[in-house]
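Student: Hello, beginner here. Can you help me understand the protein record under this note? Any guidance would be welcome.
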Amino acid sequence: MSFSEKIATLMARPGQDPVSKDDVPWWMKYLGRGVGTVGSFIAILLGVWNCVAILVGSATALIAGMWQILAAFGVLCCEAPCCCMFVDHVQRLSEWVDKRPYWNRALGYVIISIPPIILSPGLATIFGSGLIFTTGVIYGMMALGRKQDMAAAASPQLATSPTGLGGQSDHHTTLMEDPDVWRPT
């Protein structure tokens, strides 16, 4: 068992399948969880900082700060339920979110991160909600899956013919298979 497999078994959730059901790289899964967890802590702190803006009379900054705190707490509950053991039913919420497709999580994180930026576009709001937005982007990339070779994904005849999409030809060899095509006559 390699070192990365040992780390993966240590980081596994209780009751989690040891075999991955999707083809997302392991580092991207941990990147999404890490940015979501650390970013949520930072977003909560910056949301509290935004709430202090009520002292200068900015009600929209207070609302944006509270929204950012609640959004970050929601992300933290979904990404790292061990940080929120004091709240009932967080583990069930986290398991329910983990069963959903990645694009659901991506869309949810992106949507909940936008209102604070619209309400109070300050540095603390943009950075704090931007970390939640970044988590959504990472999960969006996970939903798209691995990069596919565009030529292989296209029709095999079009991708391998020397004329490509240009026209029809009876000659169906690739340029690599027929080096005589490159030699001048």
